[in-house]
Amino acid sequence: EPLITADWAVEVFRQAKAEGLTWLNRAFGDAVNVRRIDGEDREPDAILARAAEALATGDLTGAANLVGQLEGPPAEAMADWTRQANRRITLEAALEALQRRLLEGKQ
C-alpha cells in the first residue's frame, strides 16, 4: 500500500486551506520557516527583512521608514541606527540642495 494516498493528500490540502501555512511549520518543525513577504506582515523580523531589502537597493529613506514602524524593544534596539540613518538622509538632502544652488548660481 502506498505511503501517500489520495485521501491523505486531500486531507493535507483541506488542512492547508483551513489553517493557512501553519501546517507547514508543524509538519517540518524548525527546518522550514514560513512568513509573509507581501509587505503585510507587521512582525519585527519581517519589517527588518524588508528594511534590509531596501538598503540592498540603496533606498536608505525607505529602510528608515520601515524601521520607524517598529515598536517597543525592537524600536529601542534600532534607535541608534535610526538616528544615524536620519542624520545621513538630512545631510544628503542638504548637500543636494547646496549643489543645486551652486549650479543655479553658475548659470
Which features characterize this protein?
107 residues, mainly alpha, 6 helices, 0% strand
Q: Can you describe this structure?
A:
This protein is mainly α. The chain contains 6 helices and no strands. α4 packs antiparallel against α6 (79-106). It starts with 5 loop residues before the first helix and ends with a helix. The model has no long low-confidence stretch (mean pLDDT 78).
Helical content band:
over 70%
Radius of gyration from CA coordinates = 23 Å
**Global geometry:** elongated
Largest sheet: none
Beta-strand content estimate:
under 5%
Instruction: Quickly count the helices.
Output: 6
**How widely separated are the two ends?**
85 Å
Order of helices and strands: HHHHHH
Give the strand tally. 0
Structural class: mainly alpha
Q: Unreliable runs, pLDDT <50, ≥5 residues? A: none
Mean residue pLDDT: 78
Entry summary:
With 107 residues, the chain is an all-alpha fold. The chain has helices at residues 6-19, 22-28, 44-56, 60-67, 72-77, 79-106. The N and C termini lie far apart (85 Å).
